[in-house]
Amino acid sequence: MSKRALVNHRPWLLAGVISALAFYFLWNNPIGGVWLILLKGSAVGFLAIYAWRRAPGTDGTILTIALLLSAIADMALELWFEIGGALFAASHLVAVVLYLRNLREKPTGSQRLLAIALLIGVPAVAYLLSSRADIAAYAAILGLMAACAWMSRFPRYRVGLGAVLFVLSDWLIFSREGAFDLAPFPDVLIWPLYFAGQLMIATGVVQTLRGEHPAR
Questions:
Q1: Which positions ≥6 away from 107 have C-beta within 8 Å?
Q2: Contacts of 187 (CB under 8 A, 6+ apart)
Q3: Quick check: helix, strand or coil at residue 106?
Q4: What 3-state DSSP class applies to 152?
Q5: Which is more confidently placed, 33 or 25?
Q6: Residue 53 phi, psi (nearest 5)
Q7: CB-CB neighbours of 211 under 10 Å
Q8: Quick check: 122 and 142 in contact, CB under 8 A?
Q9: Segment 54-76, tens digit of pLDDT
Q10: Which pTM does this prediction carry?
Q11: On the CB side of 135, how many CA atoms lie within 13 Å of its CA?
Q12: What pLDDT score was predicted for residue 29?
């Protein structure tokens, strides 16, 4: 990567990581609710700017929209859980469009089996953890996103694994709604798993698209 590209684009990734770390260590700090909400949203928001600047074509635009919806959902969750969940569901559906446009031509049998396991297992575990049908319905969309990510042509151990980390983060959130007490894991792991997943998805998709359109 040229120095100019590094100066113009990589700082957005760095800004996202810094924002994510700052939120992780300050989330229970009395610096003010509004500032914390904005800090939380800025983490994936910076990833959306990175994707917008670096990912070419229609697929890059779709990725940017998915990340932007997630950033807005991060902030909305702090105010209204149901609205935040609806925005995340919309983000997942946008991501599904991206992955279906980029399905792997010849997936192996193990890849198909894991995709099926995600499609069925994600909502099933979500219901077991939360005992809530509405959360299971959301998790069905989450599972569809993760399954499609795993079946896409994007790097499985970047994009596919990133989607799985997203699932694990949400499962920990769902556990707070049910009878399972997984403390202290939700407080410690939800945000790192979530942001790491988003970072892996963003960089994995951008890397693939940039490799095909290096002039961007």
A1: 115, 151
A2: none
A3: coil
A4: strand
A5: 25
A6: -80, -30
A7: 8
A8: yes
A9: 888 999 999 999 999 999 999 99
A10: 0.91
A11: 21
A12: 66
